[in-house]
Amino acid sequence: MARERGGDRGDRDSRDQGMVDFVVRISRSACVVKGGRRFSFNALVVVGDKTGKVSFGYGKANEVPPAVEKAIKEGEQSARRTKKIQLRGTTIPHRVIGRYGASKVVMVPAGPGTGVKAGPGVREVLQAAGIQNILTKTHGSTNPINLVKATIDGLQKLRTREEVARLRGVAI
Questions:
Q1: Rounded to whole angstroms, how far apart are CA atoms 155 and 125?
Q2: In the beta sheet, which residues pair with residue 30?
Q3: pLDDT tens for residues 72-102?
Q4: Is the pTM higher than 0.70?
Q5: What b/e string do you get for 93-107 counting C-beta neighbours within 10 Å, with b at 16 or more?
Q6: Which of 33, 42, 91, 149 could disulfide-pair with 133, CB 3.0 to 4.6 Å?
């Protein structure tokens, strides 16, 4: 189940950088020790600027808020290193398939007013990237970490018409 935190529509400004973050999943793990169980928490967070830059962070801590903060910090750092995604208005320029591990995410451009038709994990990545109209389908593993990585992989494969023409050495 995807969990969102913050103000309206679940997004929150991260500091003063104009980045928004979505908490995709918080999970609890237990370590059995002599006195009982010791619990720790893992947080998966997607960070983006809603104009084409998107990344994710994974944080672990003994309590939920520090785990989320660690994940946001890691996501912001990796977002600076990623390249901007090629968008066409509020959707993607062409159909693309992203893969990671046993997860596969098929993304298809959609017309205005369609909205983001996606499951948990994929939806947060697309919203953080600023995509408003898209259809998606997931195949294989539904592990949230793999779905997030597969979605980002697919978005990184997007090319504009001009970019493809330049790479092939032809004129449009």
A1: 10
A2: 39
A3: 999 999 988 888 887 888 899 999 999 999 9
A4: yes
A5: bbebebbbeebbbeb
A6: 91
Q: Please tell me the predicted confidence (pLDDT) of residue 56.
A: 95
19-47: burial string, b at 16+ Cβ within 10 Å, e else = bbbbbbbbeeeeeeeeeeeeeebbbbbbb
Helix H or strand E encompassing 162: helix 161-168
Q: Given the structure tokens 């935190």, which residue do they identify?
A: 5
Q: Looking at this protein, which amino acid is placed at residue 58? A: Y
Out of 3.30.160.20, 3.10.310.70, 3.50.50.60, 2.20.25.90, the CATH code matching 20-81 is 3.30.160.20
Sign of CA dihedral 143, 148, 154, 157: negative
The CATH number given to 96-164 is 3.30.230.10
